[in-house]
Design a protein that fits this description.
By secondary structure, this protein is mostly helical. The protein has helices spanning 2-16, 21-38, 46-60.
């Protein structure tokens, strides 16, 4: 039951998040570009993927890896 209430609290917090229309549109576009760049194994666009990940990282203020190799999205991932 405790796990269920924490999930409900997370959903409520997300609903309260106020993101301006233009920022939301930019994030949506960045996510779409990121997903599109993944492609399948025969048509991946690694450069576009890296660029889209960097753009998302900047928009979401994701910290960079200490070696500068990219953004540490894993630090913000759901713990399973």
């Amino acid at each position: 039951m405790k796990n269920e209430s924490s999930k409900q609290a997370q959903k409520q917090a997300l609903r309260k998040t106020d993101v301006s229309g233009s920022l939301l549109a930019e994030i949506r576009r960045a996510v779409a570009d990121y997903v599109k760049s993944e492609g399948c194994s025969c048509c991946q666009d690694r450069d576009a993927h890296k660029e889209a990940a960097e753009r998302l990282g900047k928009l979401l203020k994701v910290k960079k890896y200490s070696d500068g190799s990219g953004r540490d999205f894993y630090a913000y991932a759901s713990k399973k």
